[in-house]
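Figure 6 in text form: structure in, sequence out.
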């Protein structure tokens, strides 16, 4: 409410963790800050971001080719198809979520654009860039 803890200000949180003697969490928080995650730009894809929506609206049946460019395994893709056999859009959404989960903070929108261009989906890549 008073914004004592914010994305770019974790000192109050650190003080609280020290007061309850949770040095393990303090060290994790410090590591998080040192890795730059607190101050990182919001270029990591999220299922609620527009790039994912644009991709889902424009890729269609070629989603496996895109996911191969993003290094998603055949086993992972087969599992997704089996879970959603008749829903092409959901297969793509779930595969992008799986890619995000596997890559973690290394899952960048720029990687999506590069993979789209690698699949000759330049129009979709242009839409994502916008």
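Output sequence:
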């Amino acid at each position: 409410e008073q914004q004592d803890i914010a994305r770019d200000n974790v000192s109050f949180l650190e003080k609280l963790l020290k007061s309850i003697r949770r040095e393990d969490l303090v060290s994790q928080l410090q590591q998080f800050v040192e890795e730059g995650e607190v101050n990182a730009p919001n270029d990591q894809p999220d299922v609620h971001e527009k790039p994912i929506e644009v991709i889902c609206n424009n890729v269609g049946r070629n989603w496996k080719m895109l996911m191969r460019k993003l290094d998603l395994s055949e086993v992972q893709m087969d599992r997704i198809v089996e879970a959603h056999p008749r829903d092409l859009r959901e297969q793509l959404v779930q595969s992008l979520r799986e890619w995000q989960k596997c890559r973690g903070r290394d899952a960048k929108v720029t990687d999506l654009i590069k993979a789209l261009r690698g699949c000759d989906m330049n129009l979709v890549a242009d839409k994502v860039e916008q």
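Caption detail: Confidence is low (pLDDT under 50) at residues 38-48.
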